[in-house]
Amino acid sequence: MAIRALVWNENEHEKTNALVQKLYPKGIHHAVAAAFAGASDITVETATLDQPEHGLSEERLRKTDVLLWWGHKAHGKVDDAIVERVQRRVWEGMGLIVLHSGHFSKIFKRLMGTPCALKWREAGEVERVWVINRNHPIAAGLPEYIEIEHEEMYGEPFTIPEPLETVLISWFEGGEVFRSGVTYQRGAGRIFYFRPGHEAYPTYHNPLVLKVILNATRWAFNPAPAWTAVDDAPNVPHDKAPVPLDVKGPRLHEAGETGFR
Amino acid sequence: MAIRALVWNENEHEKTNALVQKLYPKGIHHAVAAAFAGASDITVETATLDQPEHGLSEERLRKTDVLLWWGHKAHGKVDDAIVERVQRRVWEGMGLIVLHSGHFSKIFKRLMGTPCALKWREAGEVERVWVINRNHPIAAGLPEYIEIEHEEMYGEPFTIPEPLETVLISWFEGGEVFRSGVTYQRGAGRIFYFRPGHEAYPTYHNPLVLKVILNATRWAFNPAPAWTAVDDAPNVPHDKAPVPLDVKGPRLHEAGETGFR
Amino acid sequence: MAIRALVWNENEHEKTNALVQKLYPKGIHHAVAAAFAGASDITVETATLDQPEHGLSEERLRKTDVLLWWGHKAHGKVDDAIVERVQRRVWEGMGLIVLHSGHFSKIFKRLMGTPCALKWREAGEVERVWVINRNHPIAAGLPEYIEIEHEEMYGEPFTIPEPLETVLISWFEGGEVFRSGVTYQRGAGRIFYFRPGHEAYPTYHNPLVLKVILNATRWAFNPAPAWTAVDDAPNVPHDKAPVPLDVKGPRLHEAGETGFR
Amino acid sequence: MAIRALVWNENEHEKTNALVQKLYPKGIHHAVAAAFAGASDITVETATLDQPEHGLSEERLRKTDVLLWWGHKAHGKVDDAIVERVQRRVWEGMGLIVLHSGHFSKIFKRLMGTPCALKWREAGEVERVWVINRNHPIAAGLPEYIEIEHEEMYGEPFTIPEPLETVLISWFEGGEVFRSGVTYQRGAGRIFYFRPGHEAYPTYHNPLVLKVILNATRWAFNPAPAWTAVDDAPNVPHDKAPVPLDVKGPRLHEAGETGFR
């Protein structure tokens, strides 16, 4: 059974900016989706902000194993209810790959609980993405580093939680460093943030960048059934405890009552 | 200069439930604040839900080094704008100690990015809180374990992110286990979740429970000036880079423009 | 290409103790190897202390993807040179599953850098192994907990480094808790410690215990080529740097010299 | 009561190399010890390889709260028995700051369980040490980065375990990056590795480098009494269990017997 990837893109710059149109005539989502060309274990679809429910209906998310997210100027246009829906699916086990300026997306900030802020500079400088955790599946088949001729700089401090694993760290020509590939888990869902991908450069045509995206998608895939009860707070009655008990002392809750939340 | 602690309590059960009134006649907040009696390095105040701005005005939070949070039945009554204000102060460096049923508070869920759900049972059973990270400052001066005669059970899976450090794990008479003391960092703020403290039992009169609260408050204190720029995304112009650069290639942003968010 | 598992057992109690002989007539290694029965993606062999080089020759280790380790009374008989050989293979990418009393094995202590000590009691009490990280591949297909009728108790504090992930926590009838399933990475190798398995009880005939062992073996498998250069400290000459440099200032080392170690 | 710091240096280059002699006429240990000048909460002594027991007798280590370690060409001359002694003191709670080429010291490799290898180049290039965890006590009072005009390059992959916290990351003029400040805990002892400090450059005369060393020493200090039982494996008899038990089923060990190790 194939991994069902869904590439989401706000798809705004592509409509208004000649430079971005030229680099990504079909939209960044299609360039990212090309990462899965030839991968027989993955099927891919795309979704964009302007579709009904941003292309992220309950049913579609239920059929998505790994969601990839690109956004930049339109973070504020993403509906809060849909952000909550995506978050819930991550908790249930859907993988999430957040790309580049997606660091400021509502969904990433909500899953991290931090500002996710950073320094930046758009000067077309060299970025060198170093592999520091060679064993990680996301680094499979990569060379020592990926050199990208022109990229936007993102610099530390990147206000994210301490990652579960730091896989990639970037060097920039202008003198900064950045944790460019970091992993997290939230509920049953795995999350990977991957830095490169400014819309003014052809980064998503770089085969090594696409290889990271392919690897990350395989890594983020959770084959287990959706953990739909992830947010439940079940009461375990005293007589159904692993070691059945008599109730001792006073009680605040009535028997069978649902807990407060 | 003393650590300025602020104990926040929804203070609802205390008004309506005779049992809780008897156990905590001045409110749980005052019982928790008693943890600092005799600690010359800490000053303590209290705040409750029913005060203007829930007792958590901008000014008061600015003068708070460590906030302790107890809530249960009134999580939904806490104003979202005030939750955001508290979150921002945590990012700036304010410590946060989340107590017991506070696992489902808006502020804790927002900082964790997960459901923070768990199993529960109110049967007055024995809880034994084991110290598993003896070196941690939060465990200073504790015995091998704290035995609490009557407590509510909280059972795994507790849907939190993998902690930075697991300090305490509880054993329950009815057969469950629970990560009872876990640490996190969000921005410049340190967070500690501490499990015991059901309002139907005299847990906050237990000297060892209060010792954990005292230790945790000292640990969570960040003496650095508030990191008020924690959410900024400053542009570093090409000619102000650590290694000054010429701009290469195209640009999306105008010089001096603020980035999208 | 199948995962090549190798189950190592000191195989001493089996020769001298009638109880262990009866429970594990072919040795604990064969009971553990039964975890892979029916797993078409895994081939399994066994090795024991009394074989030449403890059954762990250079060649055999080179052909091993995941090593499982059971030892107890004969830790001291394991040759230091072979321990170093195993450690090196872990660094190169071989997975390692350390079972039960293997917490005190030379190889585990060497990879952890800590005492790996714990409390213990042999009273045939109930152990309940709770799954706390449901999403982890090692927990695939497990129920909420594994209940083992008779087991030796291991109690905290377990002096290991803070784990990468805590997957399982045990509850014991006598009142203790223990981190029963924890993960680490050392070099390119993944390590899983799994607590149950005292030789006086039929634990390795429990299908759920064997399922954890099967899952852990799949998880620990690193499909990448062996990282044989993992311990190299290569010099990168100034003119071969990613950004070629002129040498500035004085030098301690001659050009082309090997670094100190 | 003051923190008792002890700066250990192999002190070999200083005897044979004119360049190092000129930079550090009293030895690198005295330059490092100068970090504590004016710190009324810290007393400092030094020790060197050529002293009896390398200056690290049982008694002296017992009176040391934080040990700082500089070694390079003489790692192999350090006696294994003394390495074990130091390791044990770390487990008991002594802090350890490992400096620069100490990454290949016996004590660091033993505590990490990994090769601790890296790339290197001696070209006098610029190193820029970025603070990425601003809240960490080790970063107290630092600017955004420390710029060092001439340093040896250390490059990733640095084969260490995933750190507890990554505090500092370095950028090098020649194009590499390196995790320059990382924390660990082993037993009750805190460990900090700090990269800069090649003996051919005046790095230990840089006030910001000394500030990191001062901060790290305060952070690594554990005020708790030494955990001398850290390596014990105590038996908890069935009738002394937190929940006293009857023995069920067979036993391998005699009552009162010491466990195997």
Describe the model:
The structure is a homotetramer of 261-residue chains. By secondary structure, chain A is of the alpha/beta class. In chain A, 21% of the residues lie in helices and 28% in strands. The first copy, chain A, is built from seven helices and nine strands, in the order E-H-H-H-E-H-E-H-E-H-E-E-E-E-E-H. Chain A has helices at 13-16, 18-23, 28-33, 58-62, 80-92, 106-112, 207-220; strands at 3-9, 42-48, 66-70, 95-99, 119-131, 145-155, 165-172, 177-186, 189-194. Chain A has a nine-stranded mixed beta sheet with strand order 2-1-3-4-9-8-7-5-6. Chains in contact: A-B, A-C, A-D, B-C, B-D, C-D. Chain B binds chain D through residues 93, 128, 133-135, 140, 145, 147, 164-165, 171, 185, 187-190, 222-224, 227, 242, and chain D through 93, 128, 133-135, 140, 145, 147, 164-165, 171, 185, 187-190, 222-224, 227, 242.
- Counted by DSSP, the helix tally of chain A is 7
As laid out across the biggest beta sheet of chain A, the strand order is: 2-1-3-4-9-8-7-5-6
As a percent range, the share of strand residues of chain A is 25-35%
Major sheet details of chain A: 9 strands, mixed
The parts of chain A where pLDDT drops under 50 for at least 5 residues are none
